[in-house]
Amino acid sequence: MSALQVIAVAICWTINMLDGFDVLALAFVAPEIAREWGVGPAELGGMFGAGTFGMMAGALLVAPFGDYIGRRAMILLGLVTITFGMLGTALVETVLQMIALRAVTGVGIGTILASLTTMAAEYSSNKHRSFSISVMHMGYPAGAILGGLISVYLIGAFGWRSVFVFGGLASLVMIPIVLMLLPESLSYLIEKQPRGALERFNRILIRMGRPAVMVLPARLDRVAEERVSVLALFSKQYLAPTLALWFAFFMCMVALYFLLSWTPTVVVSSGLSGDYGRYAGILVNAGGAFFMVLLGWLSIRFDLRRLIQLYLVASAVMIMVFAAVPLPTVLLMVFAFLMGIEMSGMVGLYSIAARLYPTEMRNTGVGWAIGIGRWGAVAGPIAAGWMIAADLPRWTYFLTFAAGPALLAALAIALTARTSRLRDPE
Predict the structure, then answer these.
(1) Fold type of domain 3-419
(2) Model pTM?
(3) Cα distance between residue 180 and residue 246, in whole Å
(4) For the purposes of burial, counting CB atoms within 10 Å of the CB of 393, is it exposed (0-12), middle (13-18) or buried (19 or more)?
(5) How far is 65 from 71, CA to CA, in rounded Å?
(6) What are the boundaries of each domain within the chain?
(7) In angstroms, rounded to a whole number, what is the distance separating the alpha carbons of residues 55 and 103?
């Protein structure tokens, strides 16, 4: 991989890190908002769900346009939207305003994620593609870890609104960096051939230390314009693996966003301080980051799908120990870390999605898989809020929204393994 390829993956990692911060900012400040505004679990669940609903809308309705206008342009559009949403959230005064601005921020994040995955895949070498995608997605929990640590300081020094100001300004800084350093997808330039495609293609080649070309390479698929439609995902070749992939994403996101949204609040409600709640949230993400790197390293040597299944089954066990077994504070934090295995297992699905579809429909395929999964990210935190408000035992909602969905996702991945032959991106 040339320096430009490494830079491209690093920028995708950085943006994904900011997304992790932005998504979980509300989870870290939720106890303070609950006290200041006097809201309960049901209202908090609505706020959590609004952000993930926006992410779903962005992934389903906006992200597929990356196949038409380019991955780089889509990333820039998402960054602008996130910046507006985060800075606006710092000014809200009511629950409805919070829900609206969290939805706007979510649209920006959902818009970006498919393009980040595609760019990381296309600027990686074949041998290390799964590893690069895993490392890129490790930026998400890294941002959450950083966000939790920064939030502890910012909330104590400036109040909970400062967390959103910080996130908005960080996203704003990334806009000129993307404009100056991030190249467009070479596969997009070949397939769509927008105005000036040859010149842009050659500039990227030169930055990669490769000779310029006189003409663009031949398109990989002459019927690309027809196949980029969402209906292509339901063709005979892709129907079964697409449905299995969607179900796996849905279940993984039910579990992940329940854990990310509610772990800090659940820990606080058990009698520990707000800082301990934030530390538990940090540790879930730290575990996710650690096991993501391990997954990427193992995926070079072992079958990726089997590894993901193993991760999800192990996470279900750790989740139920955390929820059902009385633990001292130290062990509670240890199992919060181990619950992060679920996050890293879900990240493996992005590699499967990126390798399942050809270039001309990759953004559409990845975007829709993520978008369908976001329905789980919306439903999990909201429905969990109702169960928590009903004062049910802790193990019941951890089983319903975390351990159970992780096991079902593992079964869906087994179906994907039987019904598809994954391909490496061109």
Answers:
(1) Growth Hormone; Chain: A; (1.20.1250)
(2) 0.74
(3) 35
(4) exposed
(5) 9
(6) 3-419
(7) 7
